[in-house]
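Protocol step 4 of 6: structure prediction from sequence.
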Amino acid sequence: MIVRRLATFLLALIVWCCPLPALAQATKYYPPPLSYSNAELKGKDFSGQTLRSAEFSNANLERTNFTDADLRGTIFSASVMTHANLHGADLSNAMIDQVSFTNADLSDAVLTESIMLRSTFDNVDITGADFSDAILDGAQIKELCTKATGVNSQTGVSTRDSLGCR
């Protein structure tokens, strides 16, 4: 009985002590995400930048350039991205809900496993975009399939296949 209690105590002590150095090590390599929420970023150039897990909620990103940017895990909820350039950007695992992509360039973008519910895609260029496992409304998929062409240069997946077009 005493051995069992001692083992339980030692295990609890190890679990309690070990996460602290691991957490300190993690923050050394992964700083807190950047926040641009509610920001006026019209026409800004973020091309080629690493913005993993950044937050752009409710931001004005009209005519913003994200060409070839690393935007994995980024949040764009309820932002305006009309005329934005996202050519070749990696938006894997991003939260892109309620975003206006009117006249945006999403060509060759990687949007795998992104959540894109209630976003609008009027006059958008999706040539070569990869939407594999992205969460979209049925109406969005139907609309995007009417303009889906090309193969993504990074993943090798065709836009039509990634959307499940028939």
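Step 5 (inspection) to follow. The chain has a mean pLDDT of 88.
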